[in-house]
Amino acid sequence: QVQLVESGGGLVQPGGSLRLSCAASGSIRSIYAVGWYRQAPGKQRELVAAITSGGTTNYVDSVKGRFTISRDNAKNTVYLQMNSLKPEDTAVYYCNADLILLATMSLVGPTTTAEYDVWGQGTQVTVSS
């Protein structure tokens, strides 16, 4: 089994910065595309930033130039650096991996198991003075 654990959220003043981390635990062989999503109260969950296994990134227009997504494959961790935070960035932030390959054991020996659409539990980001 695999888990994604987000950390780094908190309360910050407008204009401040936070760095979120999304760490995968388990016998990871590889992690494909990962996205950071957020959901504010009363609103739908939206994709904020995404990064492919090759490092290609995409951002929603509202965070371009302020947020940076990156990954450390050796640590099985994806980061979201958030600068110049605004009150409208307040939300629960979730990470999602579309595909994770795991090293597992079968009756005939070592094998690879695929986990699809894996979500973390979320971390709260509050931007307020």
What does this 3D model show about the protein?
By secondary structure, the chain is mainly beta. Helix content is 0%, strand content 61%. The chain is built from no helices and 12 strands. The strands form 2 sheets. Strands 2, 4, 5, 6, 7, 10, 11 and 12 form an 8-stranded mixed beta sheet that branches. The chain has a 4-stranded antiparallel beta sheet with strand order 1-3-9-8, with no helix packed on it. The N and C termini lie far apart (40 Å). The model has no long low-confidence stretch (mean pLDDT 95).
Summarize the structure in short.
The protein is mainly beta. The protein is about 0% helix and about 60% strand.
Keywords:
single chain, 129 residues, 12 strands
Q: How many strands appear in the DSSP assignment?
A: 12
Based on helices, strands and strand pairing, what is the structural class? mainly beta
Can you tell me the residue ranges where pLDDT is under 50 for at least 5 consecutive residues? Answer: none
N- to C-terminal distance:
40 Å
Largest sheet: 8 strands, mixed
Distinct helical segment count: 0
Spell out the blueprint of helices and strands.
Blueprint: E1 3-7, E2 10-12, E3 18-25, E4 28-31, E5 34-39, E6 46-51, E7 57-59, E8 67-72, E9 77-82, E10 91-106, E11 109-119, E12 123-127
Parallel strand pairs: 2-12
Antiparallel strand pairs: 1-3, 3-9, 4-10, 5-6, 5-10, 6-7, 8-9, 10-11, 10-12
